[in-house]
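Quick sanity check, Kinase-like domain-containing protein:
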Amino acid sequence: MASSYSEPIPDPLVLATLPPSSPPALLSPSLSSSPSSSSSSSQDPLSPVAKPIGPEDFVPLKVIGTGTYGKVFLVRERSSGRLYAMKTLRKAAVVVHSKYTEHTKAERQILEAVQHPFIVKLYYAFQTARKLYLVLEYVPGGELFTHLAREKMFDEEVAVFVSAQIILALEHLHSVGVIYRDLKPENILLGSDGNVVLTDFGLSKVSLDDSGTTNTICGTVEYMAPEVVMERLGYDFSVDWWSLGILIHDMLTGSAPFRGSNRKATMDSIMNRRLKLPSYLSPASRDLLTKLLKKHPKSRLGAGPGGVEDLKKHPFFRSINWSRLLDRKVRAPFVPIIVNEEDTSNFDKEFTSMAPIPESPHASPVSPTSDALFQGFSFISRRPSFSTSFSSHYG
């Protein structure tokens, strides 16, 4: 979703070499190898359904996000009454560049393959002649970015809780060969109970080259690791730990540590400026940030032989019971205010003030050749339906 937080970069993708004995599920059949899902609102169901799913099965209620290729709507499913977030992508915009097409297909693959308490759930994917649709878990607390902008900065207790849940989400992604690559407050949602949900996998990538690295420049500039800025060097999972350090700094101080007047100046700052931390930060937070924001990726906390366990053992997280946190049994120190199930006050008014207008029947479809790029896009989750109703959170 778009935001004024940083210069927008085309939606995300990367991939990491895994042992042959443990291939990630998302590396099984590619989208292009699946049976064709015609350019009507057809389905390639993974489980039996009475009829194909299409946009007519959902009532748009509000716009809750916009991006380069389309919008995100809060919708209600007609048959069940459940609320979902429906991400719509214009095919004509996606097929402009092959990179954008691959990013979109990879996001769909990753969302299907990954199941984790702190990662957004995909329930349906389908398409029409003009658009692609991803029907996702609706997370009513809105973006962490919105709350951080309102609060200016968070107490350390909140930063510890949020970053610990992000660590668990990243740990899972890394275990199945996915580098997230676009960690930032706009891509972290808060549930009605204050637990985090990582979303927007357009820039994530699955499976690196034989060296275990990739060298595609992706992500939001303030959160880019030095090795991402120096595109020619290649990078690995440790870029996500750098971005985690930037996020923690942002939560504790209200800004990223490396900034500039424009994109180039910010990149120069990331590459050349020494880390300077405010004196009011606690010794544990200062030590953690110093170890996460190492310019050399191999020196970064989480990138050594001990991996993510070294990060979990850091004194900054001394209050965290990791197993209870994973089970969502730890009470969140910051809980968004939600008045009712359709309350979108935690989303940017720039989005929610827009009319939730459905697809125009007069828009031109893409060519058959372009449309063939999205064969196999459709999907129906086998997971039990996740109730996003107000009563399920509060009653």
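Posting the structure with no commentary besides this: The first helix runs from residue 91 to 94.
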